[in-house]
Design goal:
Mean pLDDT: 82
Structural class: alpha+beta
Strand order of the largest sheet: 3-2-1-4-5-6
Number of helices: 2
Strand content: 25-35%
Order of helices and strands: EEEHEEEH
Distance between the termini: 73 Å
């Protein structure tokens, strides 16, 4: 495990391990030139303040094991600019202005008749 330190570019990060710094080049990641800044921002957002596990250029965030290389390879950085829209308040009960349904009487289930066993 190593502590994330900083992002150098969209495919390179710096981590701190045992008091020294180590440059990590992310394996199997190709970022188009137009998306370099978005990928850097994504790395900074996802890794700041976290620990990572590094194995042969593959980086996994701790404690949720998010595979950073995969996220970059599939373009997760592109979705960071999408803004969410709030459509309304979440309310699990009946709407306050709707009348409640009338209460039903409980259903009586008849008991099965008792059969005597003969031996």
């Amino acid at each position: 495990m190593a502590r994330f330190s900083k992002v150098i570019d969209s495919r390179t990060i710096v981590v701190e391990r045992s008091g020294s710094t180590e440059v990590v080049h992310l394996a199997n990641v190709a970022i188009p030139a137009a998306d370099e800044q978005a990928a850097r921002d994504y790395l900074t957002d996802k890794l700041t303040g976290s620990f990572v596990y590094v194995e042969n250029g593959n980086v996994y965030r701790s404690p949720d094991a998010l595979f950073i290389n995969r996220e970059l390879a599939y373009g997760a950085y592109a979705s960071t600019s999408v803004k969410m829209r709030v459509l309304g308040e979440a309310y699990s009960g009946p709407h306050p202005q709707q009348s409640a349904a009338p209460a039903r009487a409980p259903v009586q289930v008849p008991k099965p008749a008792h059969r005597s066993r003969r031996r």
